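Handout for the seminar on molecular recognition.
Each group receives one record of this type.
Step one: identify the two inputs.
Step two: read the structure output and locate the region that could contact zinc ion.
Step three: write two sentences on what you found, then compare them with the reference statements printed after the record.
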Amino acid sequence: MNDHRNDHRRLGRELGIFDTDPLIGSGLPCWLPAGAAVRKAIEDYVYELERRNGYQHVNSPVLGKRELYERSGHWAHYAEDMFPPMNVGGEEFVLRPSLCPHHALIYRSRGRSRRELPLRLAELGGMYRSELSGVLGGLTRVRAIQLNDGHVFCAPEQAAAEVSASLDLIEAAHAQLGIRAARYRLSLRGDGAKFVDDPAMWARSEAVLREVLKERGRDYDEERGEGAFYGPKIDIQITDPAGRESTLSTVQVDYFQPERFDLSYAGGERPVMVHRSVVGGIERLVAHLIEVHGGAFPAWLAPVQAVVLPLSDTEQPAAESVLRRCLAAGLRAELVAAGRGSLGARIRAHRLVPYQLVVGPREAAAGGVAVRRRDGSQAGDVPVEQLAAASRPLY
Ligand SMILES: [Zn+2]
């Protein structure tokens, strides 16, 4: 068992990020208010990052007919990770193991011209994995995953540029989140029925990924048997405090699913699908962020960004007014009344909050605050609007 100080399971519970209940089932965590706030901040950030980079967002259902996954190839190559089908009125439905088939059908919903490409679709959506109870833990191995997914449908000659643009997004997001990649991995096919047997297709997609890695001057390791069943991947690996490695972000080149779904543009040309996830599954990402930051999230991610601390009950009305201004300015803020302990005790209890806004007699009279940052430094009377502006992510 991992008993590291920053183990996300221990800290996640202390910080009110998530919890699990055996009655819901293992691997099915609930997001508590602090965790839901962090998750929403990430979702908003990724949505905006994608929007600024030419993505259109879609929403699609978390299940589909068994035939959909027979067509996509999941049934033949990935069934052991899928939940068994549910029979409803003679039709079989499965919880989806990935979002790709839905996005392929959205692409196919009407004719596509060459001018429309690259068509970039993104969705933050649910996907499901039938992990066994024994391997589940905290947020790192779960059965219900909220995936930041995206698929770029492009002409073959656009694929390398789209892979490179996806890596740009990934690197920008990692910098904003305060994450450092452990290594880049080129994940290739292995032997056996897990992988589509079409050597020429694999060679073609591998060549695209190698070209991009070379052009970017990236060091990477090659690993056979780690590819998706339909194609090779660039995986961006992270490590937890115990040194265990996992994949966070990924970019994949796929010639297989466009074939299976008979996707086309300009009346008969076959597009390429670039699958990419900028920050991966939200569960694993938040587990990693808890461990990296030890709960002291960057201001834009912090569950509570500002805590208002009246010195005594006399300043309570002025503090309430500060709280209203914080909330109106877009800050996640709360007020901790004087009755909850001495000022020092309340500051210690909220030491992970980026901004502590103390309201004493002088501040109450002037309608201001004395801002204390969580590192203990004093910033004086900063308008709450300015604190809100400093608590937004950069794109
Ligand atoms: Zn995909």
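Reference statements: The mean pLDDT is 95. The radius of gyration is 24 Å.
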